[in-house]
Amino acid sequence: MMQSELLDLLTVLATLFNLAGSAVQDALFPDKRSEAQFQLDVRGALRRSPSIGIELDEHANAGGGITDLSFRGIPIELKVESLTLFALADGRRFASQAASYAVARGKKTAVLCVLDCSPKNGPPRDPSQLVGLETLENGVQVCVLVIQGNLQKPSALSRGPVRQ
Question: What is the count of structural domains for the chain?
Answer without folding.
Answer: 1
